[in-house]
Amino acid sequence: MIVRKLDELEGKDRVVSGPTWTSRRLLLARDKMGFSLHDTIIGAGTRTHMRYGNHLEAVYCIEGRGSVTTMDGTEYRIEPGTVYALDQHDEHVLLAETELRLVCVFNPPLVGPEVHDDTRGYPLLEVAEATPTP
Length: 134
Ligand code: 9YT
Hints:
Elements: E1 15-17, E2 21-27, E3 36-42, E4 47-50, E5 56-63, E6 66-70, E7 75-78, E8 83-85, E9 92-96, E10 100-107
Antiparallel strand pairs: 1-2, 2-3, 3-10, 4-9, 5-8, 5-10, 6-7, 6-9
């Protein structure tokens, strides 16, 4: 069994930030669960344009308020208790009206250091590219 706590991740390679977000990567590919699980903070007042071409992502909001808008202009309200699943690798814009706390699941699992590339998604990395810390 794997037991890991959010406050144990600081200082390890499991805490990764982009311009608008900080992702605490509780479970990664090397944990061999078949998915990765992140507790992610999105900064208040930010706009993040994404498209995960290599991954499926489910996002469950546990704190904060905002919206996600797809490229056809459809806007969905995001609040605690809302999940959105990017089952079509949907391109989307996430607006954080307040700080958002999101539980994110990726399939295939992230390896660890991924940040958004110029496709607005994450590259597919090999597990060997990650630093082998617990
Ligand atoms: C909602 C979203 O995709 N935010 C960007 C960060 C990402 N979810 C991550 O790596 O945790």
